[in-house]
Design goal:
Elements: H1 4-16, E1 22-23, E2 30-31, E3 39-41, E4 48-55, E5 58-64, H2 66-77
Antiparallel strand pairs: 1-2, 3-4, 4-5
The chain binds zinc ion (ZN).
């Protein structure tokens, strides 16, 4: 009989790994873009980020997508629409 205790502690450890995710630079929400994505829009604050992949498992933010960044900033200054 295998010990289910060992297996669940392995799953716990896997959950705590941070690969496959980065933090939104605007609202700091943890984001997990689909593998290979080059752009990702934060579902919480709607800022769109350019994504780079150090490894196939590790996405990093390269910077904002300026078109949507400016659009959002303008919308906010106008008070939204
Ligand atoms: Zn965000």
């Amino acid at each position: 009989m295998t010990t289910s205790k060992e297996r669940s502690s392995l799953q716990e450890r896997a959950k705590q790994r941070t690969t496959g995710a980065f933090r939104c630079l605007s609202c700091f929400k943890r984001l997990s873009p689909p593998k290979g994505a080059t752009h990702y829009t934060c579902p919480q604050c709607n800022y769109e980020w350019r994504v780079a992949w150090f490894t196939p498992e590790e996405p990093r933010i390269r910077g904002p997508v300026w078109d949507s960044y400016e659009q959002l900033t303008q919308d906010r200054m106008k008070g939204g629409k």
